[in-house]
Amino acid sequence: MNITIICVGKIKEKYLKDAICEYSKRLSRYCKLNIVEVPDEKTPDNASERDEIIIKNKEGDKILKKIKENMYVVALDLKGKALSSEEFATHMNNLSVKGNSNIAFVIGGSLGLSQDVLARANFKLCFSKMTFPHQLFRVMLLEQIYRGYRINSGEPYHK
């Protein structure tokens, strides 16, 4: 299976880079992983709602250019469906069984995802109603993908 994570912004913190590297290495035995970063747009402190929509749309256009036609797109969205780790593993397995071998997970910037990206998504996933920094969220997503593969393989890890 090919997993692509399309995300807005670069990771600057070494500890996050190290965690991403570790989970990427762990995942290499289960799938081909590709992490694609698109540049974030600067958001002024006093940005209006209109300004925020323009910024999300600019970031969204960059994201959409990275999505291939044959990709099953999972948008990470606060309004998406919340799944347990087991349900997430089952969802991933079902995608594979149905022939979806190219999955793209999309992590937006600090303002979230544009309506066009959400419209392109085949599935909207919510990890939590809490807000997390999008840089940290990349690590959390990689960990859950890894956990899902371990669950589906019947390997010890999930508790």
Automatic annotation (TrEMBL):
Q: How does it assemble?
A: Homodimer.
Instruction: Spell out the GO cellular component terms annotated for this protein, sorted alphabetically and separated by semicolons.
Output: cytoplasm
Q: Which residues form a coiled coil?
A: none
What protein does this entry describe? Ribosomal RNA large subunit methyltransferase H
Concerning PANTHER family, the annotation shows: METHYLTRANSFERASE, RIBOSOMAL RNA LARGE SUBUNIT METHYLTRANSFERASE H
Which chemical reaction does it catalyze?
pseudouridine(1915) in 23S rRNA + S-adenosyl-L-methionine = N(3)-methylpseudouridine(1915) in 23S rRNA + S-adenosyl-L-homocysteine + H(+)
* Taxonomic source organism: Clostridium tepidiprofundi DSM 19306
Record keywords:
Cytoplasm, Methyltransferase, rRNA processing, S-adenosyl-L-methionine, Transferase
* Taxonomic placement: Bacteria, Bacillati, Bacillota, Clostridia, Eubacteriales
